[in-house]
Amino acid sequence: MIRQIVQIGNPALRQIADAVKESEVASTEIQNLIDDLIETMRSANGAGLAATQIAAPYRICVIEVNKNPRYPYKPDIPLTVLINPKVTFLTEERINVYEGCLSVPNLRGKVDRCPEILIEGLDRDGQILSFVAKGISAGTFQHELDHLDGLVFTDRMKDASSLTTIDEFAANHEEEFKQQVINIVKNYGS
Ligand code: NI
Questions:
Q1: Class for domain 11-188, per CATH?
Q2: Ligand 1 centroid to 52 CA: how many Å?
Q3: What's the Cα-to-Cα distance from 132 to each of 135, 138, 142, 173, 176, rounded to whole Å?
Q4: At CA 13, angle to CA 161 and CA 111, rounded to 5?
């Protein structure tokens, strides 16, 4: 079922989500929630969606990038369902990249992200997941994990002057950002 995505200002977006008990992962409630997250993300052309964005207070998020029209420069990421994810930064380096969010309509802004991270959690079958994400894709994972702690990308901006509407981004910043992304992909592989 396609669910309504709550927008910035809605208290649900600011909730710190609860961990899912391992014994609950296979439940109909959690499995239906995961299906709804995937369907809602795809219908909105999102690169990811966290449960807090549909006002469900669980530590679950989904990520998928497949030639995304909202973010044509993003490297592809296969569909990934993360339950109770944890992130570990593997480098002191940071990249400063534009992000957008389905809960912050019509805006993009630059955020510092760690370009090499370890993600650990469970998949939708309750199996342990552990993988390294790099570059732009690492930023996408950090963005979704932030939602589970009630954070949106604007909270991470050190300088609000990079905030831009999507039209102004396309007109004034997208070309330069595409070049930056090409360099990040060259340096980090994704
Ligand atoms: Ni978001």
A1: alpha beta
A2: 10
A3: 10, 8, 12, 29, 27
A4: 30
pLDDT single digits (tens) 119-159: 999 999 999 999 999 999 999 999 999 999 999 999 999 99
Alpha-carbon span 57 to 80, nearest angstrom: 19
The CA radius of gyration of the chain, in Å to the nearest whole number, is: 16
Residues taking part in catalysis: 144
Q: Where are the domains of the chain?
A: 11-188
Q: Which residues surround ligand 1, an ion (CB under 5 A)?
A: 101
DSSP state of 123: -
pTM for the full model? 0.96
* 60 alpha carbon – ligand 1 mean position (Å): 13
Distance 41 CA to ligand 1 centre (A): 10
User: CA-to-CA distance for 190 and 117, rounded, in angstroms?
Assistant: 12
**Order of strands, edge to edge, in the sheet holding 95-101?**
95-101, 104-113, 164-165
Sorted by sequence, the CB contacts under 8 Å of residue 137 that are 6+ apart come out as 65, 74, 75, 77, 190
Dump pLDDT digits (tens) for 91-127.
999 999 999 999 999 999 999 999 999 999 999 999 9
